[in-house]
């Protein structure tokens, strides 16, 4: 089952590599022409696979997760400005998450809740400001 899912994802990302340098209007047109049929086939496959697995199983939960969020997962097809995934955002927030985790460890080790909260607040404000600036230059 997983091998077939990977084939669908590979096909979708192949389209993204091909359209990466196009403007958003042409990217959208190419996505609708080339990626939407793949996404539609993936949705049908997900629905078929769900019928084959028992309720409550880990596989059923994974399939249900994707099926319930299908509109959000495929929103990028209709908007050439949107990326296929959120990897860029996750890479931007990873340092924030690491710093927050470190601050929480320090706070716990010192037993000082208030100073840790101040560190977190200051760090969060600094990082959010940086992300807003980065987002403006990215898009």
Task: Describe what this molecule looks like in 3D.
- The protein is an all-alpha fold.
- 81% of the residues lie in helices and 0% in strands.
- It contains 6 helices and no strands.
- It has helices at 2-19, 24-52, 58-68, 70-74, 87-110, 113-138.
- Helix 1 (2-19) runs antiparallel to helix 2.
- It is flat, with a radius of gyration of 20 Å.
- The mean pLDDT is 86.
Distance between the termini: 36 Å
Strand content range: under 5%
Estimated radius of gyration:
20 Å
Described by the principal axes of the CA atoms, the overall outline is flat
The description of the largest β-sheet is: none
Helix content: over 70%
Number of helices: 6
The structural class is mainly alpha
Mean pLDDT: 86
Unreliably modeled segments: none
Number of strands: 0
- H/E element string? HHHHHH
SSE arrangement:
Layout: H1 2-19, H2 24-52, H3 58-68, H4 70-74, H5 87-110, H6 113-138
A few lines on this structure:
This protein has about 140 residues and is an all-alpha fold.
Tags for this model:
139 residues, mainly alpha, 6 helices, 0% strand
């Amino acid at each position: 089952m997983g091998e077939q899912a990977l084939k669908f994802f590979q096909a979708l990302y192949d389209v993204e590599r091909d359209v990466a340098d196009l403007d958003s209007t042409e990217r959208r047109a190419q996505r609708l022409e080339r990626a939407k049929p793949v996404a539609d086939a993936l949705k049908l496959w997900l629905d078929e696979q769900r019928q084959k697995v028992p309720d409550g199983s880990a596989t059923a939960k994974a399939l249900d997760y994707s099926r319930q969020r299908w509109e959000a997962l495929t929103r990028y097809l209709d908007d050439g400005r949107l990326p296929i995934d959120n990897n860029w955002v996750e890479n931007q927030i990873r340092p924030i998450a690491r710093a927050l985790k470190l601050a929480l460890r320090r706070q716990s080790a010192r037993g000082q809740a208030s100073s840790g909260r101040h560190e977190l607040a200051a760090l969060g404000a600094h990082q959010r400001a940086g992300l807003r600036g980065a987002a403006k230059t990215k898009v």
